[in-house]
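Below is how a single chain appears once it has passed through the pipeline. First comes the sequence as given, then the structure the pipeline wrote out for it. We keep one example in the README because the format questions we get most often are answered faster by looking than by reading.
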Amino acid sequence: MPTPPLAPSPSRGRSRPAAAPAPAAPRATPWPVSIGVAARRAGISARMVRHYESLGLLSGVARTDSGYRQYTEADVHALHFIRRSRDLGFSMDEIAELLGLWHDRRRASSQVKRIAQQHIDDLSERIAQMQAMQRSLQTLVACCQGNDRPDCPILDDLAAGHAEHPAAMNASKKLSNQ
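Resulting structure:
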């Protein structure tokens, strides 16, 4: 490999190798793009792209003569929309409805708000259920001695199949009376 030409060093007057030219900026892949590029740009896996397409969330994806999918900029934008909707916890049915509304320029925003508000209500209900589970488990853990003895109100409660173990119910009553 040839030695790079020497350039004078401003600090001590010695010569040093000249800097290599900066690499050319990567060129953006032109549209349409392959499934791998589309997935990367949308921040999801190629498997998820195929899944969303199979659910009908992406329609009319073009194919080459050899059958490879070709995604447009609009397809990738839709994939971003789907990913963000999933990040917010919307179901696939809700996402399909939201996508339809997004594409319908004559939509009423009240339709979108109704879906979002219903999702908030569902999330609130699930959060309340999870908080109730957390309280139940905290009560059971408080009743468990956690020692070398085999007695365990947590396992007793799970085996009984009802809401709470009697010892846990007594502890819960004591806590609520304080």
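The beta strands are 6-8, 15-17, 62-63, 69-70.

See the next section for the split statistics.
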